Amino acid sequence: MSETTIAQNMVVSFHYTLKNDGGEVLDESSGDEPMMYLHGHDNIVPGLERKLTGRKVGDKLEVVVDPADGYGERDPRGKQEIPRAAFPDDAPIEVGISFVIQTPDGDVVPMWIVGIDGDRVSCDLNHPLAGERLHFAVEVMAVRDATSEELEHGHPHGPGGHHHH
Ligand code: ZN
């Protein structure tokens, strides 16, 4: 087995189960295909990435991530109502879908649709998991060097990674 350890600019594949404080499963890697990310490029929450540093294939770990190192604290000012007409005609409008908006400062930030009432779409700047303490159970499946193209893009390619069309 490879003794390569996880470090900056390596592509890491891992299986995971994510639970909240109550033990409810919020998310997990599906079937045989592990989650893949590029280490050191903000692909995954910082609290988990930090704990994966120095790990190797076959390592299993349980990581508890506080909101500040996860999806952030919940900001009650994050909610906004946006008229449906403000969305492009072909935009999918469904609860749970995220999209990006440009702030007056020119930053591009994600928003999530959290409710729909007629012509009014309730949106939230908070990630759906903001404010949650995250309980990850992780198994490292593969570690390799990133290609120069992956480093340029800031994410991995291939199965489980980013797909370009
Ligand atoms: Zn790419």
What does this structure look like?
The chain has helices at about 45-50, 150-155; strands at about 10-20, 25-30, 35-40, 60-65, 80-85, 100, 110-115, 120-125, 135-145. The protein is mainly beta and about 160 residues long. The strands form 2 sheets. Strands 1, 2, 3, 4 and 9 form a 5-stranded antiparallel beta sheet that branches. A 4-stranded antiparallel beta sheet has the order 5-8-7-6, with no helix packed on it. A hairpin with a 2-residue loop joins strand 7 and strand 8 (about 120-125). It is globular. It starts with 9 loop residues before the first strand and ends in a 12-residue tail after the last helix.
Q: What characteristics describe this protein?
A:
mainly beta, about 160 residues, four-stranded antiparallel beta sheet, about 10% helix, 2 helices, binds zinc ion, five-stranded antiparallel beta sheet
Give a brief rundown of this model.
By secondary structure, this protein is mainly β.
Radius of gyration: 18 Å
Cα distance spanning the termini:
34 Å
- Ligand identities: zinc ion
- Give the overall shape, derived from the CA principal axes: globular
Main sheet attributes: strand count, strand direction, barrel closure: 5 strands, antiparallel
Write the layout of secondary structure elements.
Elements: E1 10-19, E2 25-28, E3 35-38, H1 46-52, E4 60-65, E5 79-83, E6 98-102, E7 108-117, E8 120-124, E9 134-145, H2 148-153
Antiparallel strand pairs: 1-2, 1-3, 1-9, 4-9, 5-8, 6-7, 7-8
The chain binds zinc ion.
